[in-house]
Amino acid sequence: MKTFRQWSIALILTALLALSATSLVLAQDVTHTVKAGETLSAIAQRYGVSQQALIAANGISNASLIYTGQQLVIPGASEETTPSAEPAPVAEEIVAAPAASEYTVRRGDTLSQIARAYGVTVMAIAAANGIDNPSQLAAGQRLTIPAGASAPAVQAAPQGNLKMTVSISEQRCRVYQDEQLLYNWPCSTGRAGSGTKAGTFYVQSKYREAWGSRWDFWMPYWLGIYWAGGSENGIHGLPYQTGGYPIWANSVGTPVTYGCVLLGAYESATLWEMAYIGMPVVIDY
Questions:
Q1: Which long-range contacts (CB under 8 A, 24 or more apart) does 95-98 make?
Q2: In the chain, what is the straight-line distance between the N-terminal and C-terminal CA atoms, in Å?
Q3: Among 116, 145, 233, 249, which residue's beta carbon has the most beta carbons within 10 A?
Q4: Bridge partners of 185?
Q5: How far apart are CA 37 and CA 56, in angstroms?
Q6: Is the confidence at residue 284, as pLDDT, over 80?
Q7: Cα angle for residues 248, 254, 258 (degrees, 5° grid)
Q8: Which residues, in sequence order, are bridge partners of residue 167?
Q9: Mean pLDDT highest for which of 37-41, 158-162, 213-217, 274-278?
Q10: Domain boundaries, given as residue ranges, for the chain
Q11: How far is 175 from 172, CA to CA, in rounded Å?
């Protein structure tokens, strides 16, 4: 018959063995395969670890750049603590991370072309992928395409083909519908050293007002058409500072902007109401 001392030693040994086995299980990190629409914060919450721990364990430099099929190490989690079923998503996650798809960049692709193909804005894709300079894409780069991205409110394309041309030499902007000239307006392009880029572009963003942080002014009736480094160039009305008067009001028709195409107050409002995402804009000399 065991003595009290023997029973005590046995109980201690049993506890130590159990603790050792638990430690072995906890020491084995598990992996998680990223599914479409998942975010790093949601995965961290699911496994009961911090987002910072996930970032450190997987060498992630940008928390928004995870992709479908990616294998993530979950530090400190074990197979026993891994949830057996997906938890119901909370409303915040549905808003912040809607179902997404993925696109692999091909040689010659531009972000504006990809955005048009998926029916989202350039800014939405740039934000979802942590892209600071939308003009720099690499063949083979994998992009997350956010579904239901927050695109600015736009009107449906009008009946017939709508197109705008910009003549740098004439400082004229013309709007055509089905090749019929609707408007022939004076306009302004970029000043010396900040010239407007020639080529065929497409409206890729549409905002009632856009903020030009570099110049500290608002640009009404904004239609973005191409990227110049990290900034978007576009067509807009007379800019103004908060609480101030319109700038360049007496300069429409001469090269005065920092690369954008400037229209007068009436003209910019008229164009903005007609324009739609994907409308071609042809700029020539």
A1: 96/39, 97/37, 97/38, 97/39, 97/42, 98/37, 98/146, 98/147, 98/148, 98/149
A2: 105
A3: 233
A4: 173
A5: 22
A6: yes
A7: 65
A8: 172, 284
A9: 274-278
A10: 100-146, 162-284
A11: 10
Q: Which of 150, 152, 149, 151 is nearest to 37 (CA)?
A: 149
Predicted structure pTM score: 0.50
In angstroms, the CA 47 to CA 168 distance is: 58
CATH class of segment(s) 162-284: mainly beta
CA quadruple 108, 112, 116, 120: dihedral, nearest 10: 130
More confident call, 200 vs 16: 200
For 234-255, the pLDDT digits (tens) are 999 999 987 778 899 899 999 9
CATH for the 100-146 domain, from 3.10.350.10, 3.30.450.20, 3.30.950.30, 3.40.50.150? 3.10.350.10
**Position 205: which residue type?**
S
- Provide the pLDDT for residue 188: 97
* Mean pLDDT of the region 170-190: 94
Angle formed by the axes of helices 51-58 and 40-47, nearest 10°? 110
